[in-house]
Amino acid sequence: MRKILAAALLALIFVTQSCAQPEQDMQGREFRGGWIHIVGNTKIKDMTRQEVQDMFVQVLDSMQTSGCNAVIFQVRPCADAFYKSDVEPWSRYLSGVQGVAPKEEWDPMQFMIDESHKRGMEFHAWCNPYRVTLLETDTLCEDHVYFKHPEIFVKHGKQLYFNPAEPLSRELTTKAIADIVNRYDIEAIHFDDYFYPYPIAGVEFNDTLAFEKYAPEQGFKVEGDPNATDSLGQAQYQQSRKQALGDWRRHNVELLIAQLNDTIKDLKPWVRFGISPFGIHRNKKDTPDSSGSNTNGLSNYDQLFADVPRWAEIGIIDYYVPQLYWEIGHRLADYKTLIEWWNDNWKRGQLYIGQSISSFRKPDLDNPEVNQTAAKMKLVRELPNVHGNVWWPAWSLVGNQAGVQESMRTTYQKNPALIPPYSELDSKAPGAVKGLKAEGGKLVWSQEPKDAQDQMQKALFYAVYYFPAGVEADKGNKDCLIKLVPEAEFDVAQNPAHAEGGKYVVTVVDRCWNESRGSAAVAF
What we know:
Structural class: alpha/beta
Largest sheet: 10 strands, parallel
Number of strands: 19
Strand content: 15-25%
C-alpha cells in the first residue's frame, strides 16, 4: 500500500510541475475506465469480508494511480446479485452457493460505490441480461425464477439462458436493473458483449417455438415453401428463414435495450446506459454494401444479434465500448482497421475503446524493440470520434502487466481528466462554487443551494486546480487539474507541489460532467 501511495504522490508532483507547458495531446476530456470482473472468481467465497474489501481497495488504488476516472464493476454476472437484493438471489461468486448471503453482512456494490466516489471515479454497474449459468455444474437456488417459469429459458451447450424472445425475460431483466437504479447512487448501467450466446459448432440456439409464436405477429415472415422439393426452392426458403430469424433476434434484443433505457431515464434521467460489444460489428464480406470492416471473424451483428451502432444512432444507449482486444497487424482482426472503422462509423453517443492490457505487450510493427502501447494510444488520441478507453481487466493494473500501469501513470493518464459531457442528457452547467477560502490547512467551499437540490445540477465531484507561481489561473488548462473530490473540501497536504505563490481554483462537475465556471483564484 505504501508503494502505491508513494507512486500516486510522485505522479501528482509530476503533474503540477508540468503545468507551465501543457502537452497538447493531454488536453481536454477523456473517459478512462476499467472493468473489474467477478464471474468465474473462485477465491472470494473463501475470503473474509475484510480480505475481499482489501482486494477491491487494492485494484481501486491502482486504477486511481493509473489516472482512471470510472469503475465498471460486475454486479449481475448470472441473473444473480453481487449486492443486497430482494429481486434476485445472492451471487454464487460471493458465498460459493447461489442464494446464500455472505457470512459477514455487507453489501459489495455499496462498498464499491463509496470507495470509487471517494477516489474521484464514477461507478458503472455492470450486468449481464441473459446468462443464467456459466458452468454445467452451476446449481440454482430453490426459489430461482427458473423453477417458476422454465418455459422462458433455453439450454445452449452447457449453459442456461433467458430466451430473449420471451416478454417475461425482458420484464424480469428490467425489474432487476430498475431495482439497482432505484436503490443505488450509480452513474451508469453497463452491459458487455453477451446477448444471444456465442455460437457453438453444430448446435443451434433452440428458439424455434418462440420464432413460430412471436415472429409472424411482429412482422418477420419467411417467404417460400418449406416443403419445396427442388433444390432452388428449398435454398430460397432457407435463405429467407435465416434472414428473418436474424432480423427477429436483433429485434428482440433491441426491444430489451429500448425498454431498459426508457426505464432508467424515467427513474433517474442522469444515469447513463452503456454497451460493450464484441469488437467486430460486421465483416465487409458479409455486407452487400461493403460497409463492414475489412476483417474476418465472428461479428456482433450476425452471430450475437446486437446492432449496437443503430442503438447509439437512435439514442437508446449513451455510450459504447467495442472490445478491440487484438494487436495492430492481427491477420483476421487488425486493431488499426477496427478502431478506424468504429471512428468512421460513429454518429451519436460517446465511443470508448475496450483495451485488452495483454495485447499491449505485442511488438510494435515498425520497431519490434518496443511494444504497441505508443502506437495504440496514438490512434486513440488522434481519431476525432474516440472519446476514451476502458481497460481489461482492471485487475491487471495491479501487477503492471505489459507495463501499462506505469505508462498510464507517467505518460498517457498522468493528469486527471474530466469525462466528456453527456450533453444530450443535460447541457446546462451548474453555477460556480460559493465561498472558496483557506481554513485550517484545507480549502473549503459550498455549492449553490438551488443547484445542490437539483438532481441534474448537483455536484458529482468538485474539480480542484492548482496553478504554481507564474502560471495563469485558467481552468481551461487541464494539465493543472490535480484532483476530483466528492466533498466540498480539499486538504492541501494532498498536493506535494503546493508552494508559496501558488493559487487554487475549484469548479463544480455535475452528474453529466458539465463543468461550472471557475471560482476566483485563492492563494493558500
